[in-house]
Amino acid sequence: MDNKEFAEIRHRLGKSQREMGQLLAVSVKAIQSFEQGWRNIPAHVERHILFLLAMKKSGTEGTPCWVIQNCPTDLKEKCPAWEFKSGHLCWFINGTICQGEVQRNWQSKMDTCRRCKVFNSAFAL
Prior knowledge:
125 residues, 434 Repressor (Amino-terminal Domain), two-stranded antiparallel sheet, 9 helices, elongated
């Protein structure tokens, strides 16, 4: 996530920098630094802000990822998104099996998710 996307999401959530800092448990200075591009946005902050946006945007769960992606039963049953019945939040859950393999880390996962129909339909970013 870059600084422009971070600021755009804050505005979409209707939060001031102070309010966003409180939601993310970081200082106002950190929010300013993220938005100015002076500091990289940590994975846990990116994850949190995307979760807040997803929860505000959708009041319903929508179609599960395993249906949209037509996952084979053997992979689906090993995937945490299926196990926890959270196919609308698959992008949020670490250890999901996307494109046939478990993602190595948050950055790798986000690279995959940003090309995915499930993520893009949730955020239209």
